[in-house]
């Protein structure tokens, strides 16, 4: 559990720097330069992510169940992950109405994804993983909106066509991931035994 927790804290800690230490971050950007700072940021993020994956695998070998979710929760998780898929994709599609309306769809999608998985999984490692992201995402979402307001960030373009394409494409990707990808990548079939 130590490897996993170290990775989770490193990953979320690096992603929290702008939220909790904005002045320090600004000084480091000046001192190191943007490219070097981003390189170190990326390296620390990847190290945290790698430790999380490795530690999660170790923890899954000896799971500590905290409760028993009902069989119906898998459908709740599926219902929540569909909008999460769409929101996360909308963060990367320029000029779409979803991004313009929400502001930071990646963070909102992460919060919804984490909530669904938090409700549908019962082990200590699951609770730490999804609970960590569930509490991180709304805090960063609020901080990002405050930053946008104080910077006077312009409202995004509100293109309906790109938003519709995002919804359709991610809906198809969600269905494929639920049917095959999740079992292949994570080792758990969302609708299987």
Provide a descriptive summary of the structure in words.
The protein is mainly alpha-helical. The protein has two domains: 1-62; 66-193. The protein is 79% helix and 0% strand. It has eight helices and no strands. Helix 1 (2-20) packs antiparallel against helix 3 (34-61), helix 4 packs antiparallel against helix 6 (105-120) and helix 4 packs across helix 8. The longest helix is centred in the N-terminal third of the chain and has 28 residues, at 34-61. 25% of the residues are buried. The model has no long low-confidence stretch (mean pLDDT 88).
SSE inventory with pairings:
Layout: H1 2-20, H2 22-32, H3 34-61, H4 73-90, H5 97-102, H6 105-120, H7 124-151, H8 160-186
Helix pairs in contact: 1-2, 1-3, 1-7, 2-3, 4-6, 4-8, 6-7
Any descriptors?
2 domains; mainly alpha; 8 helices
Order of helices and strands: HHHHHHHH
Radius of gyration, CA atoms, in whole angstroms: 18 Å
Largest sheet: none
List the total number of helices: 8
Number of strands: 0
Average pLDDT confidence is 88
First-last Cα distance: 26 Å
Q: Could you name the ranges where pLDDT drops below 50 across 5 or more consecutive residues?
A: none
Shape: globular
Briefly note the structural class of the backbone. mainly alpha
The percent range for helix content is: over 70%
**Hey, roughly how much beta strand do the residues contain?**
under 5%
Number of domains: 2
Overview in brief:
The chain is built from eight helices and no strands.
């Amino acid at each position: 559990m130590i490897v996993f927790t170290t990775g989770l804290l490193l990953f979320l800690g690096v992603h929290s720097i702008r939220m909790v230490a904005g002045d320090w971050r600004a000084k480091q950007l000046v001192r190191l330069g943007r490219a070097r700072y981003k390189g170190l940021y990326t390296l620390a993020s990847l190290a945290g992510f790698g430790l999380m994956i490795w530690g999660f695998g170790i923890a899954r070998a000896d799971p500590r169940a905290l409760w028993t979710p009902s069989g119906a929760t898998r459908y709740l998780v599926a219902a929540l992950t569909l909008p999460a898929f769409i929101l996360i994709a909308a963060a990367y599609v320029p000029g779409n109405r979803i991004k313009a309306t929400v502001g930071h769809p990646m963070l909102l999608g992460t919060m919804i994804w984490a909530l669904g998985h938090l409700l549908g999984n019962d082990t200590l490692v699951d609770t730490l993983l999804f609970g960590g992201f569930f509490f991180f995402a709304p805090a960063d979402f609020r901080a990002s909106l405050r930053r946008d307001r104080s910077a006077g960030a312009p409202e995004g373009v509100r293109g309906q066509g790109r938003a519709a394409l995002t919804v359709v494409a991610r809906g198809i990707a969600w269905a494929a991931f639920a049917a095959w990808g999740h079992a292949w990548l994570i080792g758990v079939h969302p609708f299987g035994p």
